[in-house]
Amino acid sequence: MANQIKELKKGELLFREGDPSDAMYIIKKGKIAIVKTKGTGEVELAELGPGELVGEMAFFDNKSRSAGARAKLDSSVIVLPFTSLFAQFKTFPEWMKALVKNVNGKLRSANAKIKNLESESSADATAFTPHLVTRLCAIITLVGNKYGEKTTTGVTIAYSTLRNYCIQIFQTPTNKLDKMMEALQSFGILKVEDIGQGRKKVTLVKFEFLSEFVDWYNSYLFEEESKRVTIDEKELPVLKALVFYGRKQKADDKGLVTVSLTDMQINSMSELGHPFNLNDTDSLVEKNLVQEKHSGEGGAVTQTFSIQNISTLASYWELVFALEKVES
User: Fold this and answer.
1) Coil, helix or strand at residue 33
2) pLDDT at residue number 45
3) I need a labelling partner for 14 at 20 to 30 A (CA). Which of 21, 246, 275, 289 fits?
4) What's the CA dihedral at 94, 97, 102, 103 to 10 degrees?
5) What domains can you pick out in the chain, each with its CATH number?
6) Chunked in runs of 10, what are the mean pLDDT values of the chain (328 residues)?
């Protein structure tokens, strides 16, 4: 059997969860992460290194991939096509075939049970799924746009109207709506006031922000995964640091600002309360959110980016991460 070598760059997928199975692999060099999709991101289940097998479970039952595999480093794998392996497997004693298939079946069943338990636990712990976030926020902005009254403090709507739309038109539980408004109120996006006789009014303090957030998040959720620009929570402080220092600079006619990463590294603890390192923006460069670093006068390292784009992304993702943590 002639084996092929497949080269993978860091971050490149070997195969996706749900893909049809046609081969298994032996890791020759590097590291491969076994990953499962969770919400808008991925959860790493295992890390495999040289000499270990990847994708072998599908050989015995010909089912689609139960998880994805992504290179954590530049890696190379030996491709073992199932068509060639099947020919060799036929020569095994029947008792060995039955034993191997039985073990494989129990492993796949155990993985399925674990996945179901994780889903139930996640659903119980988290108040909002990503699509429920867009639905609830869309209900609020839709009613605000249709029935809202502009005031000096924002767009004001009657809670009863909001509630009716939520139940009658979108068939969404009002307890979820109330939970969402409570979360948005903590962000200063809206304000809920009791006006007596069991009535409440809702003032959308940041109506435009919430409307634009709905459009952005909805587009993000329905974007092809390969085209999504996803921010990790650990990158949020980096974005906010860039916004903080970027706003101190004058933008050019294209809306770009240039900051000194060297100064940020020196002053971040005293001005932001947490450290900033010169390499913290490397992942943002890979995602084309900021330009490559440059060495300026006196050896200072600088970086250029769109202050509007980074500021908006930081605000949106801060809200996303906060809503993900709201408990049922």
Assistant:
1) strand
2) 83
3) 289
4) 140
5) 4-92 (2.60.120.10), 130-222 (1.10.10.10), 229-310 (1.10.10)
6) 81 88 90 82 84 81 81 93 73 67 58 52 68 95 95 95 91 90 95 90 96 97 90 95 97 96 95 94 95 86 96 97 88
Q: Give dist(CA 19, CA 41) in Å, integer.
A: 18
CA distance 54 to 25: 5
Helix runs in 251-306, H state only: 261-272, 282-286
- DSSP character at residue 230: P
Report pLDDT for 121: 47
CB 237 within 8 A of CB 277: no
Give the residue from 97, 105, 166 showing the smallest Cα distance to 136. 166
Using the Cα atoms of residue 231, residue 307, residue 322 and residue 191 in order, give the sign of their dihedral. Answer: negative
Residues 6+ apart with CB under 8 A from 326: 126, 127, 128, 179, 183
Structure tokens at 219: 């587009």
| Residue pair 277/319 in contact by the 8 Å Cβ criterion | no
> Quick one: tokens of 181?
């408004």
Please give the Cα distance from 232 to 230 (Å, whole number): 6
Q: How far is CA 119 from the centre of its chain?
A: 17
d(CA 68, CA 37) in angstroms, rounded, equals: 8
CA-to-CA distance for 67 and 15, rounded, in angstroms?
8
Show contacts of 121-128: CB within 8 Å, 24+ apart.
122/38, 124/328, 125/327, 125/328, 126/324, 126/325, 126/326, 126/327, 126/328, 127/176, 127/179, 127/323, 127/326, 127/327, 127/328, 128/176, 128/179, 128/180, 128/323, 128/324, 128/326
pLDDT of 235:
95
- Three-class DSSP category at 7: strand
User: Please, are residues 39 and 100 in contact by the beta-carbon 8 Å criterion?
Assistant: no
Beta-strand runs (E) in the chain: 4-8, 13-15, 23-29, 32-38, 41-48, 53-54, 68-71, 75-81, 149-151, 154-158, 190-196, 199-204, 256-260, 294-295, 301-306
